[in-house]
Amino acid sequence: MSLTKEELFRRIRHDSWREGLSIRALSRKYGVHRRLVREALSSPAPTPRRVPDRDSPRMGPFTKTVDEWLRADLEAPPKQRHTAKRIATRLEHELNAPIPYPTVRDYVRKRRPQIEAERNAPIDGSSSATTGPEPTPRSTSARSGREWTGR
After folding, report:
1. Taking a C-beta distance cutoff of 8 angstroms, is the pair 89, 98 a contact?
2. What are the residues whose beta carbons fall under 8 Å from the beta carbon of 85, sequence distance 6 or more?
3. What is the chain's mean pLDDT, rounded?
4. CA distance 39 to 106
5. Of 33, 37, 52, 86, which has the fewest Cβ atoms less than 10 A away?
6. 15 has pLDDT over 80
């Protein structure tokens, strides 16, 4: 039976309060370290996992080149845009840089939305939202009395 950490914390707190079990007894019952039991008793919610923010030393010298390719992709039709696999292949063949695919994939996944946001950001800080297309002029036929849009 696999419990989520939130559910495990809830059960540990419940058993400690209702059954009066000790920290050692709770750790044996749930098969977790006593440190985790103490954390569950001190806080109802588990601490979020820390995800390290790592820079890629292998990708570093080629980030400007990849960014140029991704910016050029904004103008290309969707079927002709670079995939992460294609970028990794181009780096290896054209620039003689054998960078692992997961490194390229993670960089492209992070940078592509940022580049698209840079492109769509207003230059002067004002909003460029429009109200939509202008309405088509309508005319009424003299004979039938029906409206037509002139299309």
Report:
1. no
2. 101, 105
3. 84
4. 33
5. 52
6. yes
- In tens, the pLDDT along 45-63 reads 988 888 877 778 888 999 9
Mind giving me the DSSP string for the chain? -PPPHHHHHHHHHHHHHHT---HHHHHHHHT--HHHHHHHHH-SSPPPPP------TTTGGGHHHHHHHHHHHHHS-GGGSPPHHHHHHHHHHHS-----HHHHHHHHHHHHHHHHHHHHS-SSS-------SPPPP-EE-TTT--EE---
20, amino acid identity: G
Which residue from 51, 48, 7, 46 is spatially nearest to 30, judged by alpha carbons? 7
- Confidence (pTM): 0.51
Tokens standing for residue 13: 């707190």
Instruction: For 60-115, write each residue's pLDDT tens digit.
Output: 999 999 999 999 999 989 899 999 999 999 999 999 999 999 999 999 999 999 99
Answer left, alpha or beta for residue 2, where phi above 0 means left and psi between -120 and 50 means alpha.
Answer: beta
